[in-house]
Design goal:
Layout: H1 6-32, E1 34-39, E2 44-47, H2 49-55, H3 59-62, H4 77-88, E3 93-100, E4 106-117, E5 123-132, H5 134-145, H6 147-154, E6 160-164, E7 170-173, H7 176-181, H8 185-188, H9 199-215, E8 219-226, E9 232-242, E10 253-260, H10 262-276, H11 286-303, E11 306-314, H12 317-324, H13 326-341, E12 349-354, E13 357-365, H14 368-383, E14 386-388, E15 391-393, E16 397-404, H15 411-426, E17 433-435, H16 438-441, H17 445-460, E18 463-472, E19 477-489, E20 493-495, H18 497-507, H19 510-530, E21 537-541, H20 544-547, H21 552-563, E22 570-575, H22 586-594, E23 598-604, E24 621-624, H23 626-629, H24 636-651, E25 655-658, H25 664-672, E26 677-678, H26 689-697
Parallel strand pairs: 16-17, 19-21, 21-22, 22-23, 23-24, 24-25, 25-26
Antiparallel strand pairs: 1-2, 1-5, 3-4, 4-5, 6-7, 6-10, 8-9, 9-10, 11-13, 11-16, 12-13, 14-15, 18-19, 18-26, 19-20
Helix pairs in contact: 1-10, 1-24, 5-6, 12-13, 17-18, 19-21
Length: 703
């Protein structure tokens, strides 16, 4: 019987704790706020249950539609034009909207629309948070009709309602000021309203109020208001005027209806943090770092103050994950982040790029010696042992350095050149650093020869495909196959994919190679269908470089037309690294799925932060990384991670397939955890066409 080590239990608890935080946030948002997500064209891509309940439409009726489906016709075209202008420029829009339910009845919501921006500061989707304010609007109408009726209703409202003069003198406050803010009502009615507003918000509020009084345009705003205990709460306010016929002021009064949004602010802050930070280390993520770096470079165009980019990679970290497990690996990554954080200055910025890669921006660098001193201190910190749960581990790092402006004036060039310098260190002794120089740009003789041979191989068709079966593990029936490219050089023999695929990625040759793989895989799948194998789905790996090709969709359509393969029998596999830059690829993934082609995420599970937003991605399948499968039958941590991935996938309607299955015990454990599909050497190695057909003859085909 396996005895669980205390550190294993602790690591499982940490995983479960992170998952619980994600579930709690999702639960809090779904239960308290009406949420809708649209793409940049305005098409609805997600709604929660409260959205459906309020509109009376089902989720199926809403997804794919625009908000015209609930348009009441109340607002002018200029209203929506101004709204789209605001969010299209990347700014948050707030306001009140009158909509229409499915049964024709009307309702009002207060909406906050948050644009999510890609690295080019262009919105790629919009998330709206709505609150049903139909009752409040009815209250306001009653106020206009009768101040006496207004007071009666206001006394029973949970909103903070006040009547003030232009100078801020209070004429009336609702009982909710006592219930929520704990003030004595009589003392408030003899005071001024403005000192209750946070000093940082007051000037803006007064300016907006003056503009409102002058132009009579609707005013919706947010500010912080002081409680009796001298603590501020966030409120959103609707401001209007009301004719005064009874008060001592003998002039029109300003009606301010405020709603406590403190809880929503906390949730929004947490969501924003998750979107721009790495949940493991607390560092900014790649998206956040790139945005800040670009902004810094814009500021430096005139001053030319120095910036150094440090690209940091842990040495031999994969061995730690493989031998000690991902939980120990994660603990080491946290300590690695501390090593970096403890050296850089308060003005500098460190981020996690993904996996075991970190990047640092050193600002206002005066000389190379200053950069070298910081780099040397980071290397020194890493040479000391890292203690995790009482055990010492020595994990060194390698660093590549690029300086602005001599090594590049754009964010992309600086990171690329720092990466080139890092690659040179990694190919040598490691545990060192190198500053980028022109000689690094020159490729080695072997690399140049291999690249030339690759180009010739494309012309002479030296590549071919092998197919590895994908199995329904419960009944061991084949349900598809993954197409894997092989290179048989006439002189050098078989060249490992790990050697030429990375070369293809770096040189851009992956685009013509990928197009050939796509065509050949679809052609072969169609040929097998004509032989009676109608239900097999062929999976083909597609790199991020291919997705960035502006003609990729046209090429995909042309391949399907020429091979006559029905789109539903094609699946494109993407590595999990696509999640790090999903804002730039989500639209093309949506186009792919609209064609009927399936999309899966390969090597899933190596980046836990992806779990928080996987449900928003246009994908069909998650492919569990082989590193978790390798020891799932003996390692409780790997089992817990696989269980979590399967649970989340099932909850949002995604299929799950495990790769790298080599043992019967692994297959049994995966089935026990609810994984239905798998592939690996336990079932079959990748096979040439003839061998694959023989394998099929021995297997039952999924119907």
């Amino acid at each position: 019987m396996l005895v669980k080590h205390p550190t294993q239990l602790t690591n499982i608890d940490e995983i479960n704790k992170q998952l619980k935080i994600l579930h709690d946030i999702e639960y809090a948002v779904d239960k308290s706020t009406i949420v809708g997500v649209t793409d940049r064209q305005g098409n609805i891509t997600y709604v929660n249950d409260l959205f459906c309940e309020l509109t009376q439409y089902s989720r199926e009726e809403l997804i794919g539609k625009t908000h015209n489906i609930i348009n009441s016709g109340y607002h002018t075209k200029e209203f929506f034009k101004e709204m789209w202008k605001t969010i299209g420029q990347g700014n948050i829009w707030t306001g009140e909207i009158k909509n229409k339910r499915k049964d024709g009845s009307y309702y009002w919501v207060h909406a906050t629309i948050v644009p999510f921006l890609n690295e080019k500061a262009i919105p790629y989707q919009y998330i709206s948070f709505r609150t049903d304010i139909t009752k409040e609007k009815l209250l306001e109408e009653e106020v206009i009709k009768s101040n006496e009726n207004y007071r009666l209703i206001a006394e029973n409202s949970v909103n903070l309602i006040s009547l003030i003069t232009v100078e801020g003198t209070v004429d009336y406050v609702s009982p909710s000021f006592e219930k929520i803010l704990h003030y004595d009502l009589q003392s408030l009615e003899k005071s001024n309203f403005f000192p209750l507003i946070h000093p940082s918000d007051l000037e803006t509020f007064k300016k907006e109020l003056q503009s409102f009084l002058k132009n009579k345009q609707p005013l919706d705003c947010e500010f912080r208001i002081l409680s009796k205990e001298e603590e501020y709460i966030d409120v959103e306010a609707v401001v209007s005027t009301i004719e005064d016929t009874q008060s001592r002021f003998s002039k029109d009064l300003i009606l301010i209806v405020m709603r406590d949004i403190s809880k929503r602010k906390v949730i929004e802050k947490k969501i924003h943090h998750l979107a721009y930070h790495d949940s493991l280390t607390g560092f900014p993520n790649r998206r956040s770092f790139m945005n800040q770096l670009r902004n810094e470079l814009l500021d430096r165009k005139k001053s030319k103050q120095g910036i150094s980019i440090l690209f940091i990679d842990l040495d031999n970290f994969k061995n730690i994950n493989d031998q000690l497990g991902h939980d120990i690996g994660d603990s080491i990554l946290k300590k690695a982040a501390d090593n970096i954080r403890n050296v850089i200055r308060p003005t500098d910025l460190a981020a996690r790029m993904g996996g075991d890669e970190f990047i640092v921006m050193l600002k206002n660098i005066k000389s190379q010696d200053e950069t070298n001193e910081i780099v040397s201190q980071i290397l020194s910190n890493f040479r000391a042992s890292i203690n995790v749960d009482g055990e010492d581990y020595v994990v060194t790092c390698s660093i590549g350095v690029a300086n602005f402006p001599e090594h590049g004036e754009s964010a992309e060039d600086l990171i690329k050149n720092a990466g080139n310098a890092l690659a040179r260190v990694k190919s040598g002794t490691k545990n060192d650093f190198m500053v980028f120089n022109k000689t690094i740009e020159h490729q080695s003789i072997e690399r140049r020869l291999l690249e030339n041979a690759f180009r010739i191989a494309l012309k002479e068709e030296q590549f071919y495909l092998e197919y590895q079966p994908k199995m329904d593990m419960k009944n061991e029936r084949i349900m598809g196959m993954e197409a894997l490219v092989r290179w048989n050089h006439p002189d050098l023999g078989m060249i490992p994919p790990g050697k030429f695929i990375s070369l293809a990625e770096e040189t851009g040759l992956i685009i013509p190679l990928g197009e050939w793989i796509l065509f050949e895989g679809c052609r072969q799948a169609k040929q097998w269908q004509e032989k009676g194998l109608e239900n097999l789905i062929v999976s083909i790996n597609v790199s991020i470089r291919q997705l960035e090709d502006p003609h990729f969709i046209d090429k995909l359509k042309r391949v399907l037309e020429e091979t006559k393969l029905t789109p539903k029998y094609l699946e494109l596999e993407l590595t999990e690294s696509v999640l790090a830059d999903i804002q730039n690829t989500i639209s093309i993934l949506q186009e792919i799925r609209e064609m009927g082609v399936q999309v899966s995420v390969d090597d899933f599970g190596t980046g836990y932060s992806s779990l928080s937003y996987i449900k928003h991605l246009p994908i069909d399948t998650l492919k569990i990384d082989a590193s978790f499968v390798r020891d799932i039958h003996v390692n409780e941590e790997s089992r817990a991670i696989v269980r979590a991935i399967i649970h989340i996938a099932n909850s949002i309607g995604l299929k799950v397939i495990a790769e790298g299955i080599e043992l019967q015990d692994q297959a049994k454990e995966l089935c026990t955890e609810g994984c239905k599909f798998g592939q690996g050497y336990y079932y079959s190695r990748p096979l040439k066409v003839e061998a694959f057909e023989k394998f099929i003859q021995k297997s039952s085909i999924t119907t």
